[in-house]
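Standup notes, protein team

Yesterday: finished cleaning the Gluconacetobacter dulcium set.
Today: Regulatory protein RecX structure.
Blockers: none.

Input for Regulatory protein RecX:
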Amino acid sequence: MSDQAVRGTTTGGRRAVGPVPDRALLRATALAHLARFGTTRAGLTQVLERRVQRWARRAVEGGELSEEVESRTAPLGAVIAQVVADMVELGAVDDAAFAGSRARSLTRSGRSRRAVQAHLAARGVEAETVGAVLDDALGARGQDGQDVELAAALIFARRRRAGPFAPAGEGDEDAVSGDEAAVRRRKVLDAMARAGFGRATAEAALDMDPEEAEDRIIRMKSA
């Protein structure tokens, strides 16, 4: 293979970067991404926009004028929107299904309802969909929802080796002074507050009997 073939052909000193992405290429990009990852409408839109941006950057680096590149890529916003709509129609993109699956997964890893809500919003899921999904996946803000939130707080505490999951003897006054224990507890409570857990939920998690704590976690994860 010639050096020119390896580098790519050039025209007038410009390096060829291939044709501007069209609907067929963007559709293939979408399908390849969805074969590996779950995502939302907004997430897939960003994937396709980055694909176009990479082409545009290479085109400018290859010597094309920025104005020419912009004029060629400007119409692709509508093309991307149509490709995303096609994926929704095919069922390959479903914001509600994605949000439900992600909400359950994050909660079982010790994320608070508030943190899950923020995560889904950042992924582009509409607020109305987020609210409905959280009620369905995690329980409404009644007893069921509180039980799930408490189990998530317990998982968080277990990761921090705090409360019912503290190492044996840590609560012994001979091993840890009252002041030191109070400082440790306050640090854990502060961390739980930053993670989105309410004070009452955090306190209940830290004060729970170890056997009950493990049982609650098992019940939540097996639900």
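Follow-up from PR in the comments: Residues 1-13 have pLDDT under 50 and may be disordered.
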